[in-house]
Specification:
Oligomer: single chain
Largest sheet: 9 strands, mixed
Strand content: 25-35%
Shape: globular
Bound molecules: uracil
Length: about 240
Amino acid sequence: MKKIRLDKYLSDHTEWTRSQIKKKVASGLVKVQDAVIRDAGYKVSAEDVIEMEGQRICGQQYQYLLFHKPAGIVSATEDTREETVLDAVRRGGFAGEGEVPFLAKDLFPMGRLDKDTEGLLLITNDGELAHRLLSPKKHVDKVYYAKVQGKVDESDVKAFADGVDIGDDTPAKSADLRILKSGEESEIELTITEGRFHQVKRMFHAVGKEVIYLKRLSMGSLALDKTLTKGEYRSLTEEEIKKLC
Ligand code: URA
């Protein structure tokens, strides 16, 4: 396993410069495998768990794939009856630069999109990142585009901002609804910070309307790449990984 200097590893995987990192290392703010390391020249490998200021630094030991999920497949790793997003990725559809990546065995979809929902799905084997980003405490923005049966108007914008009752113990958190087209069939963009089961569909159902098409456009700092057609995927760039972690 190739080893590199700790300061080089950290500057490759964070927005900090080498000299800023050296200061942080010297101040005892960096841990490797749970031990404080004060030597910036300490050699680390991609296998090591590295933390800076209490935050784990994501590295090359994990795989992060941006997948444009088409409708008709389920967000699961395996299913004996239905095609899963992992089946689809393994079948092909690589649209990144360079060689098709060797796909890790333990990949899983980070969060779920319904079978009929399209759009951005992150596929990874980084369980810690998934745990952190999917945590209800984290409030990561998810932006959806939807076509809705019924006239979406300002009363819905207000209801969603106030937090609509979707039949759970607590109402949905305040959400930002943007009307793109209001008519018998409306088009909207909705930003939510939670990820409850069928959340967008249930929010519209609560105001007497039905979602007839749903697509996720972004999740936190990660946006669906317009060059990816449905069913295609690519690896995240170093920049995207840094922002996400
Ligand atoms: N909300 C839904 O209703 N479905 C999805 O797939 C995602 C969010």
